[in-house]
Write a structure and sequence with these properties.
With 305 residues, this protein is an all-alpha fold. The protein has 14 helices and no strands. The radius of gyration is 18 Å and the shape is globular.
């Protein structure tokens, strides 16, 4: 019964993406409305969802080592995208680096962890997502913007400045600090954030649907296949490494095995829009990533539980 409930939720995500696509095709949404939706997601609903998921959870400093896996995976994907596009234009190189890295944890994978992995799985997921946040909430965008620029040199300070200007990242930083210091969040704030955060999954999926656009040309489909093949090929290797090689208890290894199959970060299309790159292609990659992750995560659950 639990499996049916989780599958139903996952299919609802897909249905919302389809709804956004149909509404744009019918004229309810205009192409420019994507930018409005992306601002709502990045600056309102996602930060609220972060507050809700971290509120009044205690985190030990030693557990932050798990976040390095989320961070390291993002760096690995960006590095591979850079190497794969050495002969491509700066714009294409930046696009692929931004749209292959980062995990959609809060909107997608967390419900699976809550349903199947229990409290340890949820804590592992949250810690993993702190490292992942450096990539999907500004890190990948910072690097991609430099790559797409006119020969700008790599600058750690530029990445830090971009991250600080990211509302979701600032929210993560505040909530992690409160959790480490064991400072409770007032119930009034969590209640308010909970109401807004509950809309985050819907808004993020709707945003992807509104931006979904495929020209059908061979080059675009080739880009989609190449990015997703690399993404999920590496995910298989990471899953095997996490499950069989890490010196952690079984519950932690199960959660990490699940997490590496998470879809590409839902913020990627919004950041792609900020770079004035191909929004439609980014949303298409993101949408297909969700479909593939549904299949992969269900398969992993059947094998590890």
């Amino acid at each position: 019964m639990e499996m049916i409930n989780v599958l139903t939720r996952a299919m609802c995500f897909v249905a919302i993406i389809f709804l956004g696509y149909v509404l744009r095709k019918r004229g309810f949404f205009k192409e420019g409305d994507f930018h409005v939706l992306s601002k709502i997601v990045l600056k309102i609903t996602l930060p609220a969802a972060i507050v809700t998921s971290f509120a009044n959870k205690e985190i030990e400093v030693s557990m932050l080592a798990i976040s390095l896996i989320g961070l390291g995976a993002g760096v690995l994907y960006m590095g591979l995208a850079f190497l794969m596009n050495l002969r491509a234009s700066k714009k294409q190189r930046a696009f692929e680096m931004l749209n292959i890295a980062g995990y959609n944890i809060g909107n997608f994978t967390l419900p699976f962890a809550q349903s199947f992995l229990g409290p340890i799985g949820v804590v592992t997921t949250s810690i993993f997502d702190t490292g992942n946040a450096f990539i999907c909430l500004g890190g990948a965008y910072s690097v991609a913007s430099m790559v797409q620029g006119d020969g700008g040199r790599f600058s750690v300070m530029k990445i830090i400045k971009t991250l600080i200007r990211s509302v979701p990242f600032d929210t993560y930083l505040i909530m992690i600090t409160l959790a480490l210091l064991h400072i409770p969040v007032p119930e009034t704030i969590t209640s308010f954030a909970g109401i807004i955060g509950n809309a985050n999954a819907f808004m993020a999926m709707l945003m992807i649907g509104v931006g979904f656009k495929l020209s059908g040309d061979r080059e675009q489909m080739g880009t989609i296949v190449r990015i997703l093949a690399v993404r999920y090929g590496i995910a298989v290797l990471l899953a095997l490494g996490c499950f069989f090689l890490l010196p952690l208890e079984l519950e932690y290894r199960q959660a990490l095995t699940l997490l590496v199959f998470s879809p590409i970060a839902s913020a990627a299309p919004a950041f792609t829009a900020d770079l004035k790159n191909d929004i439609g292609l980014s949303s298409a990659i993101n949408s297909f990533s969700i479909l593939i992750s549904i299949v992969c995560i269900v398969a992993v659950l059947l094998m590890i539980l």
